[in-house]
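Crash report, auto-generated. Payload:
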Amino acid sequence: MSDPGASAGPAPRSAVREAAFASLVTAGLAFPILALGTQMDLSNRIVLEQRWSWLVIAAVLVFFGRLCALLLADWRARALAVPGTWPLVGGAAMLVTQAGAAPENGLAWMAIGAAMIGAGFALDRRLASRGAVAPDVPAARAVNPLFGKVLPGVGVIALFLFPLIMLWLLGPSGSLKWINNFGIQILIFVMLGWGLNIVVGLAGLLDLGYVAFYAVGAYAYALLSTQFGLSFWWCLPLAGLFAALWGVILGFPVLRLRGDYLAIVTLAFGEIIGAVLTNWTDLTNGKAGIMSIPRITFFGVPFTAGDNGFAAMFGLAFSPIHRTIFLFYLILCLALLTNFVTIRLRRMPVGRAWEALREDEIACRSLGINTTNTKLTAFALGAMFGGFAGSFFAVRQGFVNPDSFTFVESATILAVVVLGGMGSQIGVALAAIVMVGGTEILRELEFLKLIFGSSFDPALYRMLIFGFAMVVMMIWRPRGLISGRSPSVVFRTRKTVSGALVNEGHG
Amino acid sequence: MADTSHGATRRWMSDPLLVVEHLTMRFGGLVAVNDLSFEVGRGDITALIGPNGAGKTTVFNCVTGFYKPSQGRLALAREGRALAADVAALTRTGKRSRRFPEGDLYLLERMPDFQITRFARVARTFQNIRLFPGMTVLENLIVAQHNPLMHASGMSLLGLLGWPSYLAREKQAVDKAAFWLDQIGLTDRADDPAGALPYGAQRRLEIARAMCTDPVLLCLDEPAAGLNPRESLELNALLRMIRDREGTSILLIEHDMSVVMQISDHVIVLDYGIRIADGTPEEVRNDPRVIAAYLGVEDEDELQAVEAEIAEVAT
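Recovered output after restart:
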């Protein structure tokens, strides 16, 4: 620190300086977001709205938040209270309440202020403890059997019971939202995450265009079923096959590339597929997409209200929930199949070769492993599961168009894999629940409207929250939720390998 | 002490495993290896020595296929002898390998790196250790047995179904790994990640991993670098065991003269990409050109002092 007298932590003066700096940075960063806004006026023109007070409030908040955090850290370090800290906090809160014109806004800003101070305090505490005691991470530790065996089993049983419990609790119409929006939507991303995990997590090949294979699978089902009248159960393996084929076609020329270059080419591949789907109107019907794709049947029995429908056959009262529940079990089985194959393959030569490839490609070649074939199998398998998920998507929606397969989807799937912990199956599942379920939950947070006003739509803040979550993850769990690696073969005792030793792959 | 019975027979002349002829490697205008020819005898420990930048690692990379030589022929007889007539006959066919009654003959300059390990059975280690740090010690040794295991798993299909023949083959692979774990003294650390091992153990593990590919020729790039004297002695014992018990020939690059002079049967000295001496350790040790080139000594008195020192180290 600049003050030579301060031995433990910054003195109040340098704390003020640092807080001023933080608030300056905030003002600079937040200026375009907070100070300038656009709004439609009555004649539907966009007008620029200036909200300088917002910027000032934010800067002041950050100043006091940072100051409090620094002073608290200082206080903790010296074990004595710095006079003036609490009045400052009070002052900040006062300022916040004064600034808000309407009472409901005041409440909102107060909540934000409190959250910011709390977050700053928590962060500081974390950083302080990290600085004080270097975390001694063991390279390998024995596996807790509860986590390794029991948890996945309980999870699978719970998933199988989930739609029935929801149906029982909320009835056919109330449970639809939970089974469809939460259950199926999350499971699609779990499956996609597990598929991409083979490529990114195990083989260490950064693939930014995974959505291309999802699209190939979806269009394969849409076209085969509408043009040739093939049933879903024929189209599912075909869609997987087509996607795997495209995986090989993409993989063959680009797998000599590594790292950033591979990522860029896969990104381009995803965009190319999107462009082809948009522009090859003879085949794909362009932006309008393919409509009236045949819906899922119960192995030939349609989910309709008629006499030969599913409900009549099983003597149930007709309800659209039956189809949703069937779709839930379908995607659950597909996801579990992906998981089963991945777990099995990890313990086999090809899976070990994937991981060895991620660890050190040159060493792989020195051991006689054909790295090109190994990469291609990873690409093809990952693509195949993407294709399965795609054909499921098409049969669920009954409609596909290129808008469903944008880069944002690729990024979300990749985020699921990275957030979960590359290579960890459970981690990916948890991350999908957090990311996709989190989005759905945002839609549910009606009470926020009471705080922020009725025009507030929390779902719009999805990306902001994801970004924030990613930053927090990078600081606290840089290797993902589940960072340890479980060995594929055990000599005496099963130990988890610390994530710090595991390479991320070089492409 | 060099084994005179090995040295006197000059097996690299009578029973060559690897015959390198006119090997040249150019990187743009730089000639790293210039028209180099040498033989490696079956069952020998052959040392490739020379000052830094002499082109030793380049030769290694050519032998193991990591570089495509600009010129030259590298013939390896997996079994039998690499006879000049057979090598010439294979060269004319334009193919990579040919089966002779004595065994298979390979032209390494025509093969990609992974095939050299897989078919010609040349394994290597690296100057800067290249283990799979995030995988356990056991996994490192199992990955090395990839090709036979891949075959046993029926391209993963039988393995996916948990076929008994695959499980039996995997058990066999673990047993082989266990044997090497025992040889390098890492049995107790089999389930620890390779990246967490101390440096000397990592070096030994890399050698054991290369041995798990069942090589006929093991290429070691500075295996004693960074080892303490006790570890160097252990390394000597391990290399002798590999030669005598496993029957694997060894080609090594080494700067540690105590290792080179004690265990090698044949020493080749390179300087500026050219072979300046070739023979038994005794012959090479007493060659003034070697001493001058290797140690960069020009003064005559100093040369004698250094010669005496080397003789002392070697005995």
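Post-recovery validation: The first strand of chain B starts at residue 16 and ends at 27.
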